[in-house]
Amino acid sequence: MDVYPMIDEMPDVTAEELMFAMDAGTAAAQLKMPITNPEEIGFKIHTRNDELESFKFTDTPMNRLMFGIKKAFKDEPEKITALSMRLFALIELLQEKKIKRKLKPWTRVAPDDSDTRNLHEDLFKIAAELPLTKNATFEKKKFVSALAKLTPPTNDSWITP
Question: What is the pLDDT confidence band of residue 151, given thresholds at 50, 70 and 90?
Answer without folding.
Answer: confident
